[in-house]
Write a structure and sequence with these properties.
binds guanosine-5'-diphosphate; 38% helix; Rossmann fold; binds magnesium ion
Length: 208
Amino acid sequence: MRKSPRRRSAAQPPESAVDFRFKVCLLGEPGVGKSSLVARYVLNQFTERYSPSVGARMLKKELRVGTPDGDVEVVLLIWDVMGEKTLAALLKDAYFGGSQGILAVADLSRPDTIQALPGWIGAAQSVAGSVPVVLLGNKNDLDPNIESTESFGALAERSSTPCWLTSAKTGENVETAFQTAAAAILERYRADSRSVPSRPLAASASQP
Ligand code: GDP
Ligand code: MG
């Protein structure tokens, strides 16, 4: 049984039986495993074949997030954007506009993809605002060397960002990473709602 009344996202009216719909973006260098992570999470599939994304793809996933007031049903609208930086820069308003959260993905076997993350996150937040970020160090099944795992952890610590070592291939931490993002977005949403002062009666009475 539900412990709390249904609430509505201010931005988008929800589908039936859904409390919130949040847009999240995956970003990171080409080939780090963004599309594979979405395929694992939404379809429970994995392929070794690499088909570079053309344009952006959106997949939906419904999940349940625990809050102090009880569980809520959330639909994540997951945007998998193509990793080509120049095009992503051109299209960043469309990709990142209205995003309520970011999953920033690096390939632990390619240290350059870790160094590239702050640039990607900065580009997305310049459009979406300072929305919650979760860092994913992907391809953990390839036994990455300790230096790259440490540099990934150091980036997370510097930016006070939650992070997970993931594998789209084995499924390690994939669900948990998306769940962390949904919980962080929900927590931000609740904090923002609390910080909005309710309008004084006199002021609302003067509205047409
Ligand atoms: P994207 O360009 O970031 O969307 O990357 P893709 O999801 O297309 O993945 C690029 C390549 O890496 C593909 O050949 C995938 O099969 C492979 N790949 C993705 N995730 C993993 C993973 O966790 N482990 C391993 N071993 N390979 C992966
Ligand atoms: Mg892709």
